[in-house]
Amino acid sequence: MKKIILYINILLLWSAAVYAQTSKITGTVTDPETNEPVPGATIVIKGKLTGTMSDAQGNFELTTGVKPPFTLSISSIGYENQEVQVSSEEKIAIKLLPKSELMNEVVFSASRVEENILQSPVSIEKLDLKAVRETPSISFYDGLQNLKGVEMVTSGLTYKQINTRGFNSTGNARFLQLVDGVDNQTPGLNFAVGNLFGSSDLDLESVELIPGSASALYGPVAFNGVLMMRTKDPFLYQGISAQVKTGVNHIKEEYADPHALYDFSLRYAKAFNNRFAFKINASYFSGLDWYATNYTDVDPQTSPEQRGANNPSRNALNIYGDEVVRTINGIGRVSRTGYEEKELMDYDVNSLKLNASLHYRIHDNMEVLYQYNIGRGKASYTGSNRFSLNNFVLQQHRLELRGKQYFLRAYSVIENSHDSYNARALGQQINRTWVRDLNGNIVSPDQADAMWFTRYTAAFNGNVNGVTAGNHGAARTFADEGRYIPGSAAFETEKERLVNIDGLNGAGVFSNSKFYHAEGQYDFSSLIKIFEVQVGGNFRRYDMFTNGTLFDDKDQEITINEGGAFVQVSKKLLNDNLKLTVSNRYDKNQNFKGRMTPRASVVATVAKSHNFRTSFQTGFRNPTPVDQYIKLNAGPITILGGVPDNSTGMNVYENSFTSASVSAFGAAFGAAVASGTPPQEAVMQHKDKLVKSNVAYIKPERIKTFEIGYKSLIGEKVLIDANYYYSSYTDFILNTVVIRPQSDVMGGDGTVNPAAAQDILNSNAHAFQLYTNASDKVSAQGATLGITYMLPKGYTVAANGTWASFDIKDANPNNVPAFNTPKYRTTVTVGNSEVFKNIGFNLAWRWQHSFDWYGSFNEMRPGRIKAYSLVDAQVSYKVPSLKSIVKVGANNLFNYHIYQAYGSPTIGGIYYVSVTFDELFHP
């Protein structure tokens, strides 16, 4: 420790000595055509971190420890990038030339180094600061669905999930979401909860999105793509910024009246002598969530023509508790009476995001920063059930040392699920608290379901005075006597009690899990002149804690270590018109074999404006901690994660039968006994129908992708972007059920042990749902085409279309995740930031084809998502004297009510007004 303190003191003294010899560069930035100042231009010393921004009058002041001569790089939205040689401390007059908004966009995420977006080796999309400000959607995150190839699924107002290139879901563990390089996933869920804990619009600088696998550079989570969000640097974006949004939703809805929503954001940043800076951010959103009110009867054992409100075994999609069903002799299948989701969920959702960061420049090419983020939110999430993430808290600590060629970053992500709960379990558990026996006494929860069906049977068979026999409605009314009425004091009391009980006896969801991550990267290109070389690596440790409710972690730790490293080499040839890039990454998780994920690409530029690219990419996805270590005894079945040490001593993988063979044996035995065969003889006749299971331990999923693309900027007016990809997938993670008898499954003679067969008949066996992989291979292909046209007088028209196709080949559909992607999607946007002086607008129209949605919420049975088209629109008015923008807009302007996932809520229109004050009191 003493040595560390000594080194820090030496470093601070050295940095102080460096800054004691400072240069001060001042100047102005103007538009040569209008001679007006250019505010917000970025001025950076080339090859260094040191930089500043021009103020409202176009003036800037840059203090640096670098002595002239050096080069300044100046950039601003709507102007060409410019470099200026500085030879002395004299005042500099810089005139930026206007440019097409389509030119020279710089991206980082495609290659992990800055490059022109036209020459990116893979498909990439970007929203810059101007696009963020002018999005017609209520937030930048909603606006992402206007990008090519992006799919968005809404589980609620505060939780929206994005995906690219198929295998879409409401909880996407195949897609990496980064905010300033920090993985934004929650450790327990293992995916990012939309932007519930991300950046506010006010602090966001840019968004880059890579559709498709990016594991070669970003590791296992980037199986389907990467979303990289960058927030504003406090050295460059200073002053006070504030934003107020208010709006209304639930217009013309059956179950809810119009309701206000609010969104407040505040940002303050300050820099001192270009050496120390800080920023603080606060944002708060609240509103009434969308309602899930699809009451379609989805009971799988009732023929479609007999389903509906009068079906005794009705299982309505968004009613919970009616999944409990029995077949009663002489009556048929009957389900319990459930509760509607809107009676169980808390739809008053909100999101509070707070963060602060401290930045210290040790010298002009070395900066150290610390950032703390904390978010608390309430969101509705559709998974295997409908969940309320209630007062869910996510904290992040980030420490980073960076220069122009390198960075070292360490961060931790910590969650607390607090009052989160499972709405389906809540409905079922409330149903077990009020059931009376035939004498009118309330029975215990473990007897409640059986007693309810006993009451139903007695009433239907005419054994209850005053109840008409043979009447399903009358029998249900009698069985429901004493049922808690939604909204009553008794109902609310039981609801609150059960939400606070974790595990199988309640509805609460408990997780205090966390993960720690460290990574670094160095760009050797300035040292190795013949190639561009980047090297990087990372280490991550998951530390899971569910207090025994999900993992076997009440008395032991569940930790997972994984890490990886990559190297990327690029070479430009033919006067920089041909760029070859190869990269390779090695990853190792403690539970799986190490693996390589190579990537190779070629980008060729023809006639300066035509850029052709082709690439081959590989990727993989590690099983999530839940896939690896879940150990949940759910009564008749235990759900068991698929790594070897999770089942040590349980004798499941070694000694079990397949579920299908147990069913076949049971049916054959029953038929034989019914025909007069003695039971023991029937066992010996049919025991060989039992098949010993051969389930492999879980391993990562894999993908290979070939892609070609073309980008061209024609006459600085038309941008064309097209690509085609073909991907093949193997080792998809799935669940399979096995039955473990008490006896050995195989006898000494190599045949099925009769004692094990007898165990099956005597219920001396237990079922296990195991996580493993499918051997099936499938493929997907798709293409996107985007055209952007700069019209006269500042108008921009853009259109893009996406085609996606899935080929299941000979695979078993039960072994493959659902593709859940429309075959066709298209978007058209029209905008002008200044139709009249200080008045602009933006409009986006989206359409997508109908398709079947498969998800665990409906037990992988299909639900139709109808084709729909939506319009987002906004009109803005700038008030330059107040550095403010007033915006009036709408999401889903025409208020069409649509589903984006089966079982999730219907989405209607949002109409809003926002006022933004940007960088007031900028120094």
Protein model, in words:
- By secondary structure, the chain is mainly beta.
- 13% of the residues lie in helices and 44% in strands.
- The protein is built from 13 helices and 51 strands.
- The strands form ten sheets. The protein has a 22-stranded antiparallel β-barrel. It has a five-stranded mixed β-sheet with strand order 10-15-16-13-14. Strands 36-37-42-41-38 form a five-stranded mixed β-sheet.
- A hairpin with a 3-residue loop joins strand 36 (631-633) and strand 37.
- Helix 7 (445-460) runs antiparallel to helix 8 (472-479) and helix 11 (659-674) crosses helix 12.
- It is found in: Cell outer membrane.
- InterPro entries: Beta-barrel_TonB, Beta-barrel_TonB_sf, CarboxyPept-like_regulatory, Plug_dom, Plug_dom_sf, TonB-dep_rcpt-like.
- Residues 119-226 form the TonB-dependent receptor plug domain.
- It holds the Pfam family Plug.
